[in-house]
Amino acid sequence: MNSAVAKQIADLLNSENQLVVAYTEKRVMENGETYLYELGESNEVLSCIECKRVQWYQYEVCHLTVNPKHRGNGHGRSILNKAMEHAKENGGRIVQCTIRENNAESSGLFESAGFHKSSVFFYPNSGNNVCVWQRVISDAT
């Protein structure tokens, strides 16, 4: 990842999500190995997601974001599928995420990708109820 891509990712995250902490180009670069993204013409970021190992068996995906100019073209589903493939290829068994309870678009995407809502809690820093979604990505023996 180069600094121009990192800046685009930070700008997308900040403009398209209700984040408690602002992202910076530096922060994205420091954690560059955890970001997956799709580039379009002229190296424009079409979509991005952070995919990080939490436990030996568990990955968390955060802040799936699609560039507003490119919504409705399957980029959200595509980047989510890439994140699940990445987690599975690296030994992950479960992928989890948190989604604001009132974010029907994201909840619908994750549900259609086989995720199940496991719990809901109130996050006082944002003033929102947050749902925990998860999906098993490996088969039991």
Automatic annotation (TrEMBL):
Residues 1-137 form the N-acetyltransferase domain. It comes from the Bacteria. CDD domains: NAT_SF. GO terms for molecular function: N-acetyltransferase activity. Keywords: Transferase. Transmembrane segments: none annotated. This is Acetyltransferase (GNAT) family protein. It comes from Rheinheimera pacifica.
